[in-house]
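Long-time lurker, first post. I've been practising inverse folding by hand and with some scripts of my own, and I keep getting stuck on stretches where the structure tokens seem ambiguous. Below is the full token string for one chain I'm working on. Before anyone asks, I'm not after the true native sequence, just a reasonable design that respects the backbone. If someone could post their per-position residues I'd love to compare against what I wrote down in my notebook.
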């Protein structure tokens, strides 16, 4: 491919989830922005986020919110990143509301803040049980109307174009097997986590950690790649495919966990890793591969109104969650580690940024506090966009040649990327690998 045929743009964003789309909207409209995504625009994990998005309800809650986040993360969090996220939360939520995002309100007309595991106060805004969808859909509808933002779907990033630790762009593979090069002043990685590498995951199967594999190949610094969250409650099924998540907000509204004898065995509002370990102990004790969850303090009508998608998914399997014990089991859910960044999304490679679940700025520590993921994505996506907008440096335009013929077929690339990631997880944490990664796809 001749250089004159490379696609050129100001900023290329890889990923169409909340982090990628919000970054695109926060960039100046004078910039040409290209957003590429592996599948359809609505096939991103942000779309699946059920519980809600945290916000600092008032200044008196700061210390409590900060401590809840740090404690859930086993105090391995970056305190500065936590401070930035919390202090930015009200402005970001205000922006979402101005853009048309709808959050649930109570009978008094005030926002209906809910609570989830490891939160000591109600500080989570929600839109029924499909908060991620509400935010993502709203942002996408706006972004599609922007003349400076272009979307390309069913296109996969297969390489970074870089020289001397400077990123010049990406190499892509489209749905027809055609390869191409995109040259950009700035590159933002927003490809999500690694759930597609696991048999049991709440993620879409195409979310396979491509940014992590390419970082390993090109020497971009990663951090805590083995910090992978297992969600304690997904709807148990022997069917293959993505596991349906039963949000922590259900437990926040009073759902309890029961073992095979119908006995409650843990405090359901502890951090996710603690609840997951408690479930594993019960499963081992009784020789089962699931426990049970039930919501006895709501009527069917109340549960259907508050959790319409979760209620219907359970009913489709034959369970009324307010009356029946619903079988649940842990599954891979979220990546706390990732491409190491500062609080502006800046990575160790020049002109390369990472945001959302792809990035590790230290907010989450070892274990993410419930409903911090959407907020973290929004806050730091905006900061990355603002950093790009203020950058007046001029990059050498003598970008490297790209030999598109050197790249193997799609399946070989997938195998190579998976091996790179799994080998790194095993190198960092053999115990975690043995416990959770031995059932990888």
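-- Answer (accepted) --
I ran through it position by position. Result:
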């Amino acid at each position: 491919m001749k250089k004159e045929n490379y696609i050129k743009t100001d900023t290329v964003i890889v990923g169409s989830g909340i982090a990628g789309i919000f970054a695109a909207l926060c960039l100046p409209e004078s910039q040409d922005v290209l957003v590429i995504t592996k599948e359809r625009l609505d096939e991103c994990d942000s779309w699946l986020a059920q519980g809600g998005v945290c916000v600092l309800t008032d200044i008196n809650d700061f210390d409590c919110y900060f401590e809840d986040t740090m404690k859930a993360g086993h105090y391995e969090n970056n305190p500065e990143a936590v401070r930035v996220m919390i202090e930015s939360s009200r402005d970001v939520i205000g922006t979402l509301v101005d853009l048309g995002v709808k959050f649930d309100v109570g009978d008094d007309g005030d926002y209906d803040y809910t609570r989830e595991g490891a939160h000591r106060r109600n500080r989570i805004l929600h839109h029924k049980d499909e908060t991620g969808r509400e935010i993502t859909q709203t942002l996408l509808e706006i972004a599609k109307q922007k003349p400076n933002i272009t979307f390309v779907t069913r296109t996969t990033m297969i390489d970074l174009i870089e020289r001397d630790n400077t990123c010049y762009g990406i190499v892509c593979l489209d749905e027809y097997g055609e390869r191409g090069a995109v040259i950009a002043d700035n590159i933002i990685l927003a490809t999500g986590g690694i759930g597609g590498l696991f048999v049991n995951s709440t993620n879409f199967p195409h979310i396979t950690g491509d940014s992590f594999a390419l970082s390993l190949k090109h020497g971009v610094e990663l951090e805590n790649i083995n910090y992978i969250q297992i969600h304690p409650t997904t709807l148990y099924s022997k069917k293959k495919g993505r596991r349906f998540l039963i949000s922590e907000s259900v437990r926040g509204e009073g759902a309890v966990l029961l073992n095979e004898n119908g006995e409650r065995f843990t405090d359901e509002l502890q951090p996710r890793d603690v609840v997951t370990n408690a479930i594993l102990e019960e499963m081992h004790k009784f020789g089962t591969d699931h426990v049970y969850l039930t919501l006895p303090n709501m009527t069917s009508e109340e549960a259907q109104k508050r959790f319409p998608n979760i209620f219907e998914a359970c009913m489709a399997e034959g369970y009324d969650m307010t009356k029946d014990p619903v079988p649940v089991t842990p599954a891979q859910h979220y990546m706390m580690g990732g491409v190491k960044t500062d609080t502006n999304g800046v990575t160790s490679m020049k002109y390369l940024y990472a945001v959302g679940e792809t990035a590790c700025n230290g907010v989450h520590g070892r274990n993410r506090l419930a409903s911090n993921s959407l907020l973290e994505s929004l806050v730091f996506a905006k900061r990355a966009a603002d950093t790009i907008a203020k950058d007046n440096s001029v990059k050498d335009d003598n970008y490297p040649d790209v030999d598109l013929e050197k790249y193997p077929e799609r399946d070989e690339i997938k195998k190579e990327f998976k091996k790179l990631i799994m080998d790194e997880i095993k190198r960092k944490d053999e115990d975690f690998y043995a416990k959770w990664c031995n059932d990888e796809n």
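A couple of notes from the structure itself: The chain has a mean pLDDT of 94. The radius of gyration is 21 Å. Happy to go over any region you disagree with.
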